[in-house]
Amino acid sequence: MSELRFTVDHEWLRLERDGLVTVGITPYAQQALGDVVFVQVPELGTFGAGDEVAVLESVKAASNIGMPLDGEVVEVNATLESSPELVNEDSLGEGWFFRFKPADAEAIHHLLDHDAYARLTQESAEA
């Protein structure tokens, strides 16, 4: 598995061998949300960084999933629409949301690495 990168909004990104980037939410976010009961995956197409592309609802809250980098969504995990619990059961695996082709393939390397994300979540827990 490739190295994961993270956003401050608790999304993980994995650069795949084919150049696509897979996106999901981190276990930290999944635990904070609780049981996921609904997922609306994004439409295929081009989005800018920060655009809201997906919706996630849990027993605790609703959350929008933003596009982490500029790029084109080329694949979605449609299984989540009928089985949203996959986000709870395997947030780093089968619970992924979408795959996209980044406009700038190097931009993923500017996101948080594992250590920086661990510091972020530790600071959040202490606040």
Characterize the structure shown.
The protein is of the alpha+beta class. The protein has a single domain (4-116), classed as RNA polymerase II/Efflux pump adaptor protein, barrel-sandwich hybrid domain (OB fold (Dihydrolipoamide Acetyltransferase, E2P), Beta Barrel), CATH 2.40.50. The protein has helices at 27-33, 79-82, 86-89, 114-126, and strands spanning 4-6, 11-15, 21-25, 36-40, 45-47, 52-58, 62-66, 71-76, 98-102. A hairpin with a 3-residue loop joins strand 6 (52-58) and strand 7. The longest helix is centred in the C-terminal third of the chain and has 13 residues, at 114-126. The radius of gyration is 14 Å and the shape is globular. It starts with a strand and ends with a helix.
Supply the key terms.
127 residues, alpha+beta, OB fold (Dihydrolipoamide Acetyltransferase, E2P), 3-stranded antiparallel sheet, 4 helices, 9 strands
